[in-house]
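Much of what follows relies on a compact textual record of a protein's fold. The record below shows the convention in full:
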Amino acid sequence: MPPTGSMAPKLEGPRPEGPGSEGGPLRNGAETPGAVVDRSERYLIVGAGPAGLAQARAFKRAGIAFDQIERHRDLGGIWDIENPGTPMYRSARFISSKRRSAFLGFPMPADYPDYPDHGRVLAYVRRFAEAEGLVEDIAFGTGAEWIEPEGEGLWSLRLDRGPRRLYRGVVCANGMTWTPQKPEIRGHFDGELRHAVSYSDAAAYRGRRVLVIGGGNTGCDIACDLTQQAVATTLSLRRGYHVIPRHVLGLPADVFGAALPGLPLRLQQSASQGLLRLLRGNPRRRGWPEPDHRIYESHPIINSEILDLVGSGSLRLKPDVEAFDGQEVRFRDGSRAAFDAVLLATGYKMAIPFMDPAHFAWAQDRIAGFLTAFNARHRSLFTLGFLAINAGVFGDFDRLAHLVAQHVRDQGENPARAEAFRRIVETETPDLTGGLSLVPSPRHAVYAHNPTFRAYVEKLRRRMGWPPFPG
């Protein structure tokens, strides 16, 4: 693993302060304080992570004028480990493979490993932005303080510095893993209690007894990481999960799955569970709890180490936590154990902190609405990067960004088609689960089955008569 950020070249020279496309650059603080700057011929993109960059490319190719702001000093979103508040940690890597995770038409470098670490992913995202000519159109160090409707279909942006601005529309691409979800647990813990968003590496826990609460990919990865330094590592699981190794018969797991011939869903699930049992044996024999759901009915755990660590005793498992009691933790099965530190790998709440939540549709704490991108209440308000799907998302960000750009262009050039699409946004609720009986948890409230999602958006694109997706 390279040192933090070592694979991500910094873009040299001073950062431009704003877009340089037609209509003039966005210069922070250049206008008279208290003034209202009219940018109503433009759209605003908030955020320069992968989703925001996908939208910028789509707008640029569609000829749509836009400004893009990013509160951090550089682009990359969560993949920049130096970005304050990022959930990234030093050992983090993609859980989907490079071949199934790239932007459309922009493959990851051939010399990348199958599952790139965060530094390589960041370098790739920056190369994408440079290759597409997106960097000069980003106002870095510029955060949205508040955005609200104003007048006839316009949006007012109040920046954390500089004057207020008016825009034709807004794309919120601020990311969905910035607001930690912290469960309410009875009692009080006398040791160190932190959310995993603050986790950097295992060295900080050397010689300590650590409990990780949460069995998602982050919790499992961090628990495996901690076994190298902690004197004792325990993972608390709410339920059993299906664990898929990163490679199956020498291929990345998602590449192997995509190469299988089309089968009915139940047969796919049975075949996958049978193959995993053949390759890895019965996980219960190593102490891993039996899942209460079929494979793919919960976001899969992609991990090649955890079953071996559990089987060897290096990683201990416990059921869900019932209460804290001083230095001890009491579990649902009545057992107790003492710990020096507890890490909450309990996920994140989707949030758009610079807008009133009432502007959006929600399913529990998840952004809902049509394809999670289109807003039934507001014609010119979009949310990109809030898609929960069982695959690498960069290409799917591209697909949604393309649909947004085509619809925006239609609003000016083809009003009849724009109205037809609005009716779809306001009335259609496609089932994107692929027929899976998903585990009833907040994470799966708007979850999409990747092949079903991609088939639907391609059919929608053709139905609207829009050009092909990039790539």
The longest strand covers residues 36-46. The two ends are 31 Å apart (CA to CA). Residues 394-413 form the longest helix (20 residues).
